[in-house]
């Protein structure tokens, strides 16, 4: 059974149906990834619109440029233990 149509592109819809489909866990993971992508994009867009480098934004908010860099990565999942 095909999932609800999400994309205008038939190719993207086919990929979604094939790999996500109606699997509730896959749908949740997909939606969470979309949120991460949107947050990363918004941080980047706002920072560049303000004319700030990652280092300048970091200084303004009291963190490091590497933290800003990670926040602008779509796959960032919070603090990582290494």
Explain this structure.
The chain is 62% helix and 0% strand. It contains 4 helices and no strands. It has helices at 10-19, 24-49, 54-61, 65-71. The longest helix is centred in the middle third of the chain and has 26 residues, at 24-49.
Strand and helix map with partners:
Layout: H1 10-19, H2 24-49, H3 54-61, H4 65-71
Helix pairs in contact: 3-4
Keywords, please?
elongated; 82 residues; 62% helix; 4 helices; mainly alpha
Distance N to C terminus: 42 Å
Poorly predicted regions are: none
Rg for CA atoms: 17 Å
According to DSSP, the number of beta strands is 0
- Percent helix range: 55-70%
Q: What order do the helices and strands follow?
A: HHHH
Beta strand %: under 5%
Overall pLDDT confidence: 88
Helix-strand category: mainly alpha
- Main pleated sheet: none
Shape call: elongated
């Amino acid at each position: 059974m095909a999932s609800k149509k999400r994309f205008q592109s038939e190719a993207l819809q086919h990929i979604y149906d094939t790999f996500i489909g109606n699997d509730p866990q896959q749908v949740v993971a997909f939606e969470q990834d979309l949120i991460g992508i949107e947050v990363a994009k918004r941080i980047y867009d706002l920072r560049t619109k303000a004319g700030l480098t990652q280092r300048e934004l970091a200084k303004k908010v009291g963190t490091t440029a590497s933290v800003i860099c990670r926040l602008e990565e779509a796959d960032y999942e919070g603090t990582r233990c290494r």
